[in-house]
Amino acid sequence: MNISERKKKILAAVVDEYVRTAEPVGSKAIAERGELHCSSATIRNELAELVSLGYLEQPHTSAGRVPTPMGYRMYVNELMQKQKLSLEETEDINRRMNQKLRELDDTISDVSRLASQLTDYPALALTTRTAVTIKRFDIIYVDANTFIIVVLLSDNTVKNKLVRLPVSVDQKLVQRLSSLFNSGFTGITEDAVTPLLIKSTERAADDTMGVTSVIAAFAIEVLTQAAAPSAYVSGENRLLNQPEFRDPDKAHKLMGYLSGGGYILPPGENLNEAGEIKVLIGPENVAEELKDSSVVIATYDAGDNTRGMIGVVGPTRMDYSAVAEKLSILAAGLSRRLGGGEAPPEGMHNKLIIKGDTGHE
Amino acid sequence: MNISERKKKILAAVVDEYVRTAEPVGSKAIAERGELHCSSATIRNELAELVSLGYLEQPHTSAGRVPTPMGYRMYVNELMQKQKLSLEETEDINRRMNQKLRELDDTISDVSRLASQLTDYPALALTTRTAVTIKRFDIIYVDANTFIIVVLLSDNTVKNKLVRLPVSVDQKLVQRLSSLFNSGFTGITEDAVTPLLIKSTERAADDTMGVTSVIAAFAIEVLTQAAAPSAYVSGENRLLNQPEFRDPDKAHKLMGYLSGGGYILPPGENLNEAGEIKVLIGPENVAEELKDSSVVIATYDAGDNTRGMIGVVGPTRMDYSAVAEKLSILAAGLSRRLGGGEAPPEGMHNKLIIKGDTGHE
DNA sequence: ATTAGCACTCGAAAGGAAAGAGTGCCAACA
DNA sequence: TGTTGGCACTCTTTCCTTTCGAGTGCTAAT
């Protein structure tokens, strides 16, 4: 579907203006911007056509125009001018990110918080870990009743647990178990941890006190937990900044959905390539609760063939280009930190490739 | 200040009714409850006196009465009938708590989430760790570029970090460092980790690659982080359920304060004894943002002479007794899990001792 | 000391008029 | 054929007025 250059300019102006003011925008307001060199009457005609084409709509007969999801889609795909953050801003973001570099889980939730701060929208971060295995298994003997299990996972995170037993355990037994687990339980996924495997380990270790099953239970817990995607939501309260969520019921519904860790991506849909940005506008979302909100998602590379996503949620009237740019920087930073070998030079970040629905239903 | 039995009953009735309906309560409504055997006119007289005593107030001349903070204080201190949860409810709470028993940090945030669910108010949890030391130091050699630092702290939490170096390191060196740190860095607090100590460890280990300082940095980070109080906030969005926060600006302000980890307790004020409940009503709070909200706080014993608190925030019109009871169960459960040796029998929980301001300014 | 009765007050809800923003359309114009 | 000014029309928003009712305070009777 091709529309004239001028219509595109007008559509872009409507979106820009509406994003800024949250009020339906009228023909006069557009004419006064001075970009189009024509009168408000001309623009009125064009607006009427944009409405009948489905890009805009009128809340009521004598109001200004508001973009439809299809209008936003067009804007995101073609019209939006990629907002370039200034060098200082980019560096500021990177600096703030650098201050947080602990363990994976922490990093992710910190970055989600950062994303929310930067964009002033609620942000969420998901890790989708696939097929995690244990790379290494250690048991540290502390005293007769206490030992620490330390597990290194294939995604290079480390999990541990302090175990205190009501009975005394021989240091030798712990050492035997440590090496048995290290050979028997590494490189396998959760479903390979069978009762049979546990039994045979127990027998091999000559364990009569049931220590083996405690350790095996931890292995299972770790593998299960690591394989499950985890979600972090930050800054739900920023939703209340948006005029479209001044209705507490509406805000509450969406916030509840978000902090419940609701699904964002359409079920079957895969994450993008790292570095790409996905935009889901209003009804393009599957979740009922998101039907009149938009979601911008950046994918990062978490190494080990794993990807995660970081995104923000806001009204359809969202500053897509600013948000996309900021998320892109954050995702690039995460990829750099978590991802595989090659570390792109600081300050660089991935190209802004925007992907999403086509907008035609 | 003594007031008649009947006034107390009437005050209690006003609070109960107002908590339930969030509407100013009139004389007729109280008369119809049937507890006081007198007419609405009599109650009107009493109400007028309660107003002039400062326990109640009128939003405007011809409205019903609403409790003042002083009224709530009287209610909490003397009138409120300790709500006894049914056995099933208590057991349900304990069961749900039992499902979460991982590491300290997780437990706390899970319990905070649980508190929010149970009470339908935003909940927060604070740990105040004091003088944490390292109890044991282990370094696990993984390969020439990689090792894992595992640290057991005096509060029985375990912290770990995976270190990847750009240079190869000798396994012998790692072993030397492991035992040096285990003897030199245990039992000391953060400020005892001096550059001198690090230097001498480095020399003793014959470390020319700077590995020592990496490990020392982790030790410092762990000690700092463990000594810093951490706060978790859950369910901010539940605030929007309360009619007094239907104004999005009000809600936003408070939610922002909460998720910013704002202080709750008056600066100098100590936590209660474990098992006690503290109630801060409206202006009794120090933070400006909390001046017309109430906070209920339960203290738990985190073992090792450390206490933490778990609390909820809501409008002054809060169901104090139900909230206090639920928090009490949660705090007791936490004490049982985290606290020192003796484990009180399941299902039991600490007495409900309520403490707080006296309400006289 | 308690109660019934009644006039009074004040806010919330409902109705209605006026204002204003923006449109749609027509006729004139380049 | 595309553009423009003009103007009547529509529909919301805002403000004002009115009405309604809950609840009070006071007084007089018990």
How many DSSP helices of chain A?
11
Mean pLDDT of chain A: 84
Total number of strands of chain A: 11
Task: Indicate the percent of residues in helices of chain A.
Answer: 40-55%
Secondary structure: elements and pairs:
The structure is a homodimer of 361-residue chains.
Chain A: H1 5-21, H2 27-33, H3 40-53, E1 56-57, E2 66-67, H4 69-79, H5 87-98, H6 104-119, E3 123-128, E4 134-143, E5 146-153, E6 158-164, H7 171-184, H8 195-205, H9 211-227, E7 230-234, H10 248-259, E8 276-281, E9 293-301, E10 307-315, H11 320-338, E11 353-356
Helix pairs in contact in A: 1-4, 2-3, 5-11, 6-11, 7-8, 8-9
Chain A binds a DNA duplex (30 and 30 nucleotides) through helix 3.
Description:
With 361 residues, chain A is α+β, with helices and mostly antiparallel strands. Chain A contains 11 helices and 11 strands. In chain A, strands 7-3-10-9-8-11 form a 6-stranded mixed beta sheet. Chain A has a 3-stranded antiparallel beta sheet with strand order 4-5-6. In chain A, a hairpin with a 2-residue loop joins strand 4 (134-143) and strand 5. The radius of gyration of chain A is 26 Å and the shape is elongated. Chain A starts with a helix and ends in a 5-residue tail after the last strand. Chains A and B meet through strand 4, strand 5, strand 6 and helix 10 of A and strand 4, strand 5, strand 6 and helix 10 of B. Chain A binds a DNA duplex (30 and 30 nucleotides) through helix 3.
